[in-house]
Amino acid sequence: MSVLVFTESEEGKFKKTAYEVVSYARGIADMMNTTVTALTINADETSSLGTYGADKVVHLKNDKLAKFTANAYASALTQAAQKEGSKVIVLSSSANAKYLAPILAVDLNAGYASNVVALPESESPFTVKRTAFTNKAFNHTEIKTDVKIIGLSKNSFGLKEAQKEASEESFEPSLDDVHFNIDVQSVDKVKDKVTIADAEIVVSGGRGLKGPENWGMIEEMADILGAATACSKPVSDMGWRPHSEHVGQTGKPVASNLYIAIGISGAIQHLAGINASKTKVVINTDPEAPFFKAADYGIIGDAFEVVPKLNEKLKEFKASNS
Amino acid sequence: MKILVCISHVPDTTSKINFTDNDTKFDTNGVQFVINPNDEFGLTRAMWFKEKQGATVDIINVGGPETEPTLRKALAIGADSAIRINTEALDGFQVAKELSAVAKEGNYDLIIAGRESIDYNGGMVPGMLANLIGASFVNTCISLEVEGETATAIREIDGGKETVTAKLPLVIGGQKGLVEESDLRIPNMRGIMMARKKPLDVKEPQGADTETKAVSFEKPAPKGEVKLVSPDNLDELIDLLHNEAKVI
Ligand SMILES: Cc1cc2nc3c(=O)[nH]c(=O)nc-3n(C[C@H](O)[C@H](O)[C@H](O)COP(=O)(O)OP(=O)(O)OC[C@H]3O[C@@H](n4cnc5c(N)ncnc54)[C@H](O)[C@@H]3O)c2cc1C
């Protein structure tokens, strides 16, 4: 009956989202009077999961799983869910979790709700709140199947400590060649750079910055704040910045604590994708720019004057607050 | 090579989102519907396979008659024929299950779907479909080449990308990158005329079950006024971010 949660790690270390999904699973387990079991794959050290409410850690070490393969990971989760008799499985919204979730759903005959933002509203019927229409609305969805899969939106639940002593158990699911039908040839990952998916703060630039040569100050601000850099769609379409930085309805979603938009007008498609961010700041010369209606804080001013000054102030602030 | 492109019929990105019937139904009043943007990137990539590698391209949608103009548009862009499974799309599983019947029957080498549709953002149809028909599956696909029986794809991952190979049949969840924005095609007069004569086959559904139910909708609470800070008083912004919003 235990709620099963997949706690993702990278190079053996848990991501913050792993603690968030455990916190959330703890919440559901408390509602249902049951326990939380976390499945880890090739994680080094797992005691930290107890801090956020895991009762048990099922630990899988297998070199064949060093690279993510959706079918093999889904199969491991399926076998863990069956072993634990889990009725609820909680996943994050990482690219890998979103990749394996539908595969898992078919394997377990489970209904799957993605982009869930809160604990279930009721247990029977089992109803969750999720975002829809790319953050322009919420949708209350009932999962009707016996086994249920929840994909939790990043940064929607937060971390909640519960201080459990998690027991540990190793786990060796049987994996066949069919689970490795996708061959990973190479992985090209930026190092030493915060990614939009993991970032607490995102600094984003738009067409108002005039050209790629002006991104130095954006990168500097991101450096000072430990933030990821992002951009509006036309900026990536013109090749000023890579597509991977394109955020919005047709790009990446952003759900950071702080989103700073510089020289971005705030078109509906842009706002849809970034609206889940908690605090939004806009810097724009045009007081009529629609972003001012979506932002919490705004500066009407020229980015080329404001941003370098703001960077200096932020440096001072960081120096005296660290 | 036989290609099937899954087309979701969605509100235009500029649509105002409202609900009717006690917030249980999406209000289509005055809403323009378009090909789901992620699907359009995939369709355009399919056109490349058609023109460069002689592929045939069918398109498919699960939906009522109201989706036909969207299918005609995809035909005008260049798809060869269309299939509409005549039933309301109720949840991701039901749609995947309906698609799987046609996908199996048609023996497609490649099935191109979008990473997610921009209306319900479920992000599950491609993966479920692949699993139901036992095909390989690559999600968030930003590049795709096919040679013989093998596909080489690039998948976007958090903070980078990954190059993979897979045997056909393959299902992808595609997105921008499969082709560039500037590669997207606007149907011309000739395409529109030709599309009228292309087959649009209406199939009756299998009657697949649903696993989830969209019970109701709600709009986000209205936003408070923006706090304006003078460009000459940036310390105030830092103070607000630190002490009020507590985000730095
Ligand atoms: C189907 C579809 C999907 C789309 N999806 C997305 C999406 O996912 N993401 C996205 O971003 N867009 C998307 N768009 C595009 C969207 O409609 C806008 O065109 C785009 O967001 C505008 O980008 P921008 O704000 O950088 O540029 P603009 O709208 O040109 O705005 C530039 C802003 O910079 C300001 N500015 C100029 N100079 C300065 C200066 N010196 N200092 C400060 N400010 C300055 C201007 O006042 C202006 O507000 C989509 C469009 C369509 C049709």
Automatic annotation (TrEMBL), chain A:
<dbReference type="GO" id="GO:0009055">
    <property type="term" value="F:electron transfer activity"/>
</dbReference>
<feature type="domain" description="Electron transfer flavoprotein alpha/beta-subunit N-terminal">
    <location>
        <begin position="3"/>
        <end position="184"/>
    </location>
</feature>
<keyword id="KW-0249">Electron transport</keyword>
<dbReference type="GO" id="GO:0050660">
    <property type="term" value="F:flavin adenine dinucleotide binding"/>
</dbReference>
<dbReference type="InterPro" id="IPR029035">
    <property type="entry name" value="DHS-like_NAD/FAD-binding_dom"/>
</dbReference>
<dbReference type="InterPro" id="IPR001308">
    <property type="entry name" value="ETF_a/FixB"/>
</dbReference>
<dbReference type="InterPro" id="IPR014731">
    <property type="entry name" value="ETF_asu_C"/>
</dbReference>
<dbReference type="InterPro" id="IPR014730">
    <property type="entry name" value="ETF_a/b_N"/>
</dbReference>
<feature type="binding site">
    <location>
        <position position="284"/>
    </location>
    <ligand>
        <name>FAD</name>
    </ligand>
</feature>
<feature type="binding site">
    <location>
        <position position="207"/>
    </location>
    <ligand>
        <name>FAD</name>
    </ligand>
</feature>
<dbReference type="InterPro" id="IPR014729">
    <property type="entry name" value="Rossmann-like_a/b/a_fold"/>
</dbReference>
<dbReference type="GO" id="GO:0033539">
    <property type="term" value="P:fatty acid beta-oxidation using acyl-CoA dehydrogenase"/>
</dbReference>
<keyword id="KW-0813">Transport</keyword>
<dbReference type="Pfam" id="PF00766">
    <property type="entry name" value="ETF_alpha"/>
</dbReference>
<dbReference type="Pfam" id="PF01012">
    <property type="entry name" value="ETF"/>
</dbReference>
<keyword id="KW-0274">FAD</keyword>
<protein>
    <submittedName>
        <fullName>Electron transfer flavoprotein alpha subunit apoprotein</fullName>
    </submittedName>
</protein>
<feature type="binding site">
    <location>
        <begin position="263"/>
        <end position="270"/>
    </location>
    <ligand>
        <name>FAD</name>
    </ligand>
</feature>
<keyword id="KW-0285">Flavoprotein</keyword>
<comment type="similarity">
    <text>Belongs to the ETF alpha-subunit/FixB family.</text>
</comment>
TrEMBL record, chain B:
<dbReference type="InterPro" id="IPR014729">
    <property type="entry name" value="Rossmann-like_a/b/a_fold"/>
</dbReference>
<protein>
    <recommendedName>
        <fullName>Electron transfer flavoprotein subunit beta</fullName>
    </recommendedName>
</protein>
<comment type="similarity">
    <text>Belongs to the ETF beta-subunit/FixA family.</text>
</comment>
<keyword id="KW-0249">Electron transport</keyword>
<dbReference type="InterPro" id="IPR014730">
    <property type="entry name" value="ETF_a/b_N"/>
</dbReference>
<keyword id="KW-0813">Transport</keyword>
<dbReference type="InterPro" id="IPR012255">
    <property type="entry name" value="ETF_b"/>
</dbReference>
<dbReference type="GO" id="GO:0009055">
    <property type="term" value="F:electron transfer activity"/>
</dbReference>
<dbReference type="Pfam" id="PF01012">
    <property type="entry name" value="ETF"/>
</dbReference>
<dbReference type="InterPro" id="IPR033948">
    <property type="entry name" value="ETF_beta_N"/>
</dbReference>
<feature type="domain" description="Electron transfer flavoprotein alpha/beta-subunit N-terminal">
    <location>
        <begin position="23"/>
        <end position="212"/>
    </location>
</feature>
